[in-house]
Amino acid sequence: MAIVVGSTLIVYLIILKIQKDINLLAPKTLFPLIILSTYFLAILQLSGLQHEYPAWFTFLIFGIIGVFLIGAQFANIIHWTKGSKNIGYDSLTIKILSFIMLMSILGAFLGEIIVLGLPPAISGTLRNQYFVSGIGSIVALQSSFWGMIIYDRYHQRNLGKLFWVYAMTIVVIAILLSNKYQIIYMGLILLMAHNSFRNRIKVKTLVIFTGLVIFLFIGLFELIYQNMYNITFDKIATIYQMKLPESLNVLAQPYLYVAFNYENLLIF
Q: Mean pLDDT lowest for which of 2-6, 43-47, 219-223?
């Protein structure tokens, strides 16, 4: 089945390559690409703990892609209002709102430090235990804040150079909290904004972004998670019976994160 899935992925990539001005981040384009590429990796069974994927499961994955594409096609039939309208807002309003949100997030983050001590990236505290009810929810507003300042950056640029101060503050907080998913989310928001308001994202850009995500997994694990969970790349490779050269054991963690999503689906 690996040959079938791999061949389908190659054909799909060729189709994307030859089409001009294609929106790679459109759901009907991105969803099949993500599912085909990740399932192909999973079906390679680089872990000895993975199950053999039966033919019906592969057809189920193809069926999921097919149903999604049919739904996307029906959505295109519906007559949505054409044209996009930018939301207008006052310069002073966005500056005041941004400042208030940033101060709220910073204040809540400092509150967590007072209550729980230094953040996980420094103290080694388990990330899922570093949360204070109430103020922790305010810290989580950094996702909304990031989206707001990115939108302003691509439209009115009211924040000017303050954008970089705000953006770097949010990135530093996410790193200190050892939240790789938050960082990936912010990267996706930036890609989507550029794709929507500037130039279409190319396949090369998606490949680079994927490489950066893998590097993020490896870097955070090496610098933070290794001490946090008292585990190493080699230990993970041994536990999960990875069929990788020892020099590539660093890829075990991102691979397992992808592959075992399909394991969970199969068992479920």
A: 219-223
pTM of the model: 0.77
The string of DSSP letters for 68-123 reads HHHHHHHHHHS-PPPS--PPP--HHHHHHHHHHHHHHHHHHHHHHHHHH-S-HHHH
pLDDT in tens, 144-184: 999 999 989 988 889 999 999 999 999 999 989 888 888 88
* CA distance linking residue 167 with residue 146, whole number of Å: 7
Task: Determine if residue 226 is left, alpha or beta; phi over 0 gives left, psi from -120 to 50 gives alpha, anything else beta.
Answer: alpha
The angle at the Cα of 58, spanning 57 to 60, to the nearest 5 degrees, equals 60
Give 41-66 pLDDT, tens digit per residue. Answer: 999 999 998 888 999 999 999 999 99
CA angle 38, 26, 202 (to 5 degrees): 75
**What DSSP line would sit under 119-138, residue for residue?**
-HHHH---GGG---TTHHHH
Backbone angles phi, psi at 241, to 5 degrees: 50, 55
Whether 117 and 123 have beta carbons less than 8 Å apart is answered as yes
* For residue 125, pLDDT beyond 90: no
Backbone angles phi, psi at 242, to 5 degrees: -70, 140
The percent of the chain in helix, strand and coil, each rounded to the nearest 5, is 75, 0, 25
Q: Which residues does residue 242 pair with via DSSP β-bridges, in sequence order?
A: 47
Q: Where are the domains of the chain?
A: 2-77+200-267, 91-197
The rounded distance, in Å, linking the Cα atoms of 93 and 120 is: 35
